[in-house]
Amino acid sequence: MPIAQYPEITPPTIQVTTSYPGGSAEIVANTIGTPIEQAVNGVENSIYLSSTSGSDGSYTLTISFKVGTDLNTSLSLVQNYVNAALSQLPAGVNAQGVTVRKVSTNILLVINLFSEDNTFDETFLANYAIINMQYPLARLPGVGQLNVVGAGEVQHARVA
């Protein structure tokens, strides 16, 4: 039975991400988080905002909307609000760019790679997944995001 036959029960979300190279979590929260969150606060049909500022200079804002909200319209609104806040952000952030995209909080599939005889370590398997599986799987119809987690390069996203 296709997933589409089940009713939506989780709030749809839009995620705003960027990074400030060399910025601490506190600096990121103050110089990136505050202007962006003030700009998008109260966007039509939003129910709450959640953000994280990392010690590596990363910033992620997740905006949750009422169930049934048309995310294409909301995406345009959020992008416009974020664009209005860009002039308040540090130059290093604008050089990195700010990404606004629809995301799903639903995890539909988890795939584990392992070596039965321990021939390959976690770093090898993570690199294999990134090089050989990440992009082909991400291009499949219906896949919104893909997350490769493990030793080596760690990326955070969701399969939708």
Note down, in words, how this protein is organized.
With 160 residues, the chain is of the alpha+beta class. The protein folds into two domains: 3-103, Alpha-Beta Plaits, CATH 3.30.70.1430; 107-160, no CATH class. It has four helices and four strands; from the N terminus they run βαββααβα. A four-stranded antiparallel beta sheet has the order 2-3-1-4. The relative contact order is 0.16. Residues 152-160 have low confidence and may be disordered.
Q: Low-confidence parts lasting 5 or more residues at pLDDT below 50?
A: 152-160
What helical percentage do the residues reach? 25-40%
Mean pLDDT: 84
* Strand and helix order: EHEEHHEH
Q: Tell me the domain tally.
A: 2
Q: What amount of the residues lies in strands?
A: 15-25%
| Strand arrangement across the biggest beta sheet | 2-3-1-4
Can you summarize this structure?
The protein has helices spanning 25-40, 71-85, 91-96, 122-138, and strands at residues 13-19, 46-53, 58-65, 99-103. The protein is of the alpha+beta class.
Structure characteristics:
160 residues; Alpha-Beta Plaits; 34% helix; globular
Draw up the topology in text.
Elements: E1 13-19, H1 25-40, E2 46-53, E3 58-65, H2 71-85, H3 91-96, E4 99-103, H4 122-138
Antiparallel strand pairs: 1-3, 1-4, 2-3
